[in-house]
Design goal:
The protein is mostly helical. Helix 1 packs antiparallel against helix 10 and helix 9 runs antiparallel to helix 10. The two termini are 20 Å apart.
Length: 201
């Protein structure tokens, strides 16, 4: 995938939101989501459409049941998970449900004017929540005035340095090494590339 730094902000926001959606439980709806995003743009050079097309190609190589089994082993359990999708697992010595890092991520969301949606069942440091927040930040800065844009930029830097950008490498390494399907192997690699390209050094 092309470096997100070379991609238009609108497309980058779509990419982060799309990657977040791919960490949902496999379903026919997720397959349809991939098909729609891979084909609807109709622009072969569009990096977002290319990413979804590549993921769709891997998705079609397995049955839904095979993807569900892989997903459960990687992210759900029932006992141990291969790649826990929670930032606190990687950022705290003894992760707890609402530890220091989780409370800090909630503070960042609220400083951006957001709160957790009641419909979201996961904790604030879940990979889906953090990728959706990154998509929001990239998108919101497009229409923000100068002062608000600077505030959002500072929040994004803090968020990437101390949260998503700090745990994405060990998380995606577990995904790519532990996945039994090409779909999750590719998803892990695309997630790693996209987030690290956005993360300040």
């Amino acid at each position: 995938m092309e470096s997100p730094n070379n991609i238009e902000p609108e497309t980058r926001a779509d990419i982060f939101a799309g990657i977040a959606g791919c960490y949902a439980r496999p379903s026919l709806d997720l397959g349809a989501f991939l098909e729609a995003n891979a084909e609807s743009n109709g622009r072969p050079a569009d990096p977002g459409a290319q990413m979804f097309s590549d993921l769709l190609g891997q998705w079609r190589k397995n049955t839904l049941q095979e993807l569900l089994v892989d997903y459960a082993g990687l992210f759900v359990g029932p006992f141990e998970t291969i790649a826990p999708p929670l930032g606190s697992v990687y950022l705290e010595d003894q992760p707890t449900l609402m530890g220091t890092s989780t409370r800090d991520i909630l503070d960042i969301y609220r400083q951006a004017g957001l709160d957790m949606a009641e419909s979201f069942n996961g904790p604030p440091d879940h990979i889906i929540a953090e990728l959706e927040f990154l998509a929001y930040l990239v998108s919101a800065r497009l229409s923000a005035d100068t002062e608000t844009g600077q505030t959002l930029h500072a929040l994004e830097q803090r968020f990437l340095r101390h949260h998503l950008g700090a745990w994405i490498e060990p998380f995606t390494r577990k995904v790519t090494q532990g996945a039994g399907t090409g779909f999750y192997q590719l998803l892990g690699e695309l997630t790693r590339q996209a987030v690290l390209a956005e993360t300040p050094i």
